[in-house]
Amino acid sequence: MKKLILIIDDDESIGEVMKTILQRPGWETVILTACQNASEVAKIQPDLILMDLWMPKLGGDKLTRMVKKDTRTHHIPVIMVSAHNDASSVAKEVGADSFLAKPFDIDDLENLVTAYLT
Amino acid sequence: VIKDKKELAEILATVPGVIWEVKGDPADPQMVFSYINKYVVSFLGYSYKKWQTTPGFWLQTILPEEQKRVRREFHQIFVSKKERSTRYRLVKKNGSSVWVRTRLSVMVDADGKPVGVRGITTDITYYMQIENRKDEFISMASHELKTPLTSIKAYAQLLKKYGKELNDPVILSYLERMNAQVDRLADLIFRMLDTTRIHAGKLVLHRTRFAMDELIREVVQDVRNLSQQHPIQAYSLLPVFVTADRPRITQVLTNFLTNAIKYSPVGSPIIIRIVRDKAQTTVEVQDFGKGISKENQKHIFERFFQATNKHPHDQSLGLGLYIASEIMKQHDGQIGVKSKKGHGSTFSFSLPNDEGL
Known about the structure:
The complex is a heterodimer.
Chain A: E1 4-8, H1 12-23, E2 28-32, H2 38-44, E3 48-52, H3 60-69, E4 78-82, H4 87-94, E5 98-101, H5 106-117
Parallel strand pairs in A: 1-2, 1-3, 3-4, 4-5
Chain B: H1 5-14, E1 18-23, E2 35-36, H2 39-44, H3 48-53, H4 57-60, H5 67-80, E3 84-91, E4 97-108, E5 114-123, H6 125-162, H7 169-199, E6 208-211, H8 212-226, E7 232-235, E8 241-244, H9 246-262, E9 270-276, E10 280-286, H10 294-299, H11 320-330, E11 334-339, E12 345-352
Parallel strand pairs in B: 7-9
Antiparallel strand pairs in B: 1-2, 1-5, 3-4, 4-5, 6-8, 9-10, 10-12, 11-12
Helix pairs in contact in B: 6-7, 7-11, 8-9, 9-11
């Protein structure tokens, strides 16, 4: 079965380009431009989450905390992806499994995702 | 012409600035003012007597988290005997805080030994609020700029990786150039943001112990990958350990090396050395370029400073060395330049050695 990656980013263009990159090696993707709680994630049951940090309604930091606390979703690896300079320490603090800075190299994204999905 | 003492006292009580004098080191925790003008009472609210008689009262009025830094800076100014200024926050009697700028001049005795300081402290709260708003704006703007940049970069890389018809070497070279320019734009934005963070006092160090010689080898390799126009020679790279923020020190050294490449003729060597003494470890980067005038050396580590004789196509923002010097300041280290016009420059940074080594 194809692995499913959930992309959460308020900017549609980022979601689209990530989808394009990740579909090439054969992964399935779902894009959310906003996500309010861990239940939404639980419904999708992805194998991996790519999480933006700065989002207008609910930030990726709070959402990661929720995902990592909820028994239905805490096993799902979260990679925080952000253009914010302080984001790597934030990612660590809230329990994200890894961090990727924007703008990223497409190979870095692919390798990181591969590392969590194999 | 001031007619009498009364008139002078009147002027000093109403001039919008605190004028004061201290005998001895102003960083002394028991410091008492030998003179302070009455304006301080209307400015901060505490009684005039407290300022004149309570030892260390001045220190208590500084915002607690800034006391250590301000004392260190005052002490450095006292020892250096140079006229300099510093910014910090004071807490008023009513509990509110106020940003001030203090400019100090050092009094010396007949032997040139520092014996005291005279200062003027003025309210810069309004100015700092505007600065903060500007920094917030830059921070927001750079974040927003990075989002479209992320897409552009990714699509350019996708084209290069998967475009079937891209066997055409011309297309490939255009894409490579496009990628390089995107990286350059990303770097500019990153530096803009970095400067803002440093300015807002938000640069946090993550110190680890690492081998400086290894770091140098890595940086030299990275720089060689970018440009082979200069032979880069590294001397005396014996294993030397320091405790510092490794990525930040990498940033400083990369900045020195890329500057050396940029400002010296193709083919001229660049030399890197480690010098270690009892107290500190110094890394030097020497180039044989056009050098920097005495006047420019004084300002080269300032924010947005650009040498006046810079090349017209040089599009840098003048932030690299400012960021480097702020990084070294945070490390309690040093940064410096030695140069003579026409004879090249040697940039150096020093880190204090670990204790007990």
